[in-house]
Amino acid sequence: MDWLTVTCLGACGGAIVQAVTFSADVHAWQQARREALADLRPRPPKLTRFVDPPADALVLLTRLALGAVAGFLFHAQVSGATAAIAVGASAPALLRQFGAVRATAGINVREETAAVPAASVQTTAAGSALLGDG
């Protein structure tokens, strides 16, 4: 699949996750309204108690962007539309894991670099001991 298609489908996957989250918030509001109406309360809860439009819009944009980035990064491994949408839907976890692998690789390189002088000092000390210099 070409990178542009996977990137767009990844963004769609991110949007689907946010739509599911929004649906759960609306469902919670519906349940609270039903309980309030069953208890004959004069005022059922407002939708804004369960949904925060500015924050939800920002999260939607973030999920779209993360889904698109994940789609772009993994486009060579994705072979179908469903897989591309799944990559976008799981973008935060994938990118967190991708970043952790890169950070771990950097730590390993630094540890190996620090181990080289220590190994050469040990080798020099062992060589001196064998030659009787130490």
Features:
elongated; mainly alpha; 134 residues; 4 helices
Notes on the protein architecture:
This protein is an all-alpha fold and 134 residues long. It has a domain at 3-91. The protein has helices at 3-38, 53-73, 81-89, 91-131. The longest helix is centred in the last third of the chain and has 41 residues, at 91-131.
What low-confidence regions span 5 or more consecutive residues with pLDDT below 50? 119-131
Structural class: mainly alpha
Mean pLDDT: 83
Q: Name the shape in a single word.
A: elongated
Cα(first) to Cα(last) distance is: 65 Å
Taken in chain order, the helices and strands follow as HHHH
Rounded radius of gyration (Å): 27 Å
What's the number of extended β-strand segments?
0
Main sheet? none
Q: What oligomeric state do the depicted chains represent?
A: single chain
How much beta, percentage-wise?
under 5%
Number of helices: 4
- Proportion of residues in helical segments: over 70%
Summarize the topology.
Layout: H1 3-38, H2 53-73, H3 81-89, H4 91-131
Helix pairs in contact: 1-2, 1-3, 2-3, 2-4
Q: What would a concise description of this structure say?
A:
The protein is mainly α.
